[in-house]
Amino acid sequence: MRRVISAMAVLACAGAYALAANERVTFILTNGERQSGTVVHHGGQGNNLIDNNFNVGLDNGQERSIRDADVVAIDFAADQPALAELQQLPAGGQWLALRNGQGQGGTLVNLVNGDTVIWRNPQGQDQQYAIRDVARVYLNMPAARVAYNATGIAPAGVGTSGIASASPLQPGEVRVQANQAWTDSGLNVKKGDRVAFHATGQIAFGQSPGQTAGPDGKGSMRQQDYPVPVMAVGGLIGKVGAMAPFPIGSNTQPIVMPADGRLMLGVNDNELGDNSGFFSVTVTKR
Predict the structure, then answer these.
(1) Rounded to the nearest 5°, which phi and psi values hold at 16?
(2) Which stretches does DSSP call E strand in 113-254?
(3) Residue 18 DSSP symbol
(4) Whole-model pTM?
(5) Domain limits, the chain
(6) How confident is the model over 185-205, as pLDDT tens digits?
(7) What are φ and ψ of residue 248, in 5° steps?
(8) How many CB atoms are closer than 10 A to CB 79?
(9) Per-residue pLDDT tens for 87-118?
(10) Which CATH architecture has domain 173-285?
């Protein structure tokens, strides 16, 4: 009897240890929900992702399956990503962010044994990372930016190595892409707020020679169908909410905000598809 009791105690301890070995995780969903629990695993290979469903062990002892298409990001660090991490994120694809600040593109293969991420790098090689070394896995880049309030941070460029290559943004700096209708400044403003801008760089508003512009736009080229008709093509502009756009250019004096809402930045052009480049704009609320 003592042997049976002793064996049962050993099994109970082993089961408790296996449960404790499963790392904590939070699945962030497209609808804004955040589901936390443990990284459970099943089958001989110890997979978590089975039949296109992630599986999470809930704190009440139950288990929940979540469609992989509904998952924006898998968060192991349980904290707000640092600015440096968000600056590494590319415009699309998937991204593995490590707790040491490094990251790389590729594809999530699976979570195994409750403690390991299997990641396929851009060269097609499968790599293993201990979950304790992984901060987050980003699966849906645009939705992840919304979830982490990072829509005002321009995507980083990613080379063939899968490593982010864009230079880090400085505090308050926004990259205003010329081929994008509006770029989120990251600021909510109120009517009467004074906001200063410092813009540098050059964009192309077409593909022909000479079709380039600085923050003030290109010479005297103005049209009624530009967002700001009185400003030259390609110049830096802004808008608040649904209000009419206003010129910014190279002016560094504070501009009085015309309404309450989100401050957006853009370029003064009505055809964005053939544009390229960006302005670097430092935004300061006075």
Answers:
(1) -65, -40
(2) 116-120, 126-130, 134-138, 173-177, 183-189, 194-200, 203-204, 212-213, 236-240, 246-247
(3) H
(4) 0.53
(5) 22-166, 173-285
(6) 888 999 999 999 999 888 888
(7) -120, -55
(8) 10
(9) 888 877 889 999 988 888 889 999 999 999 99
(10) Sandwich (2.60)
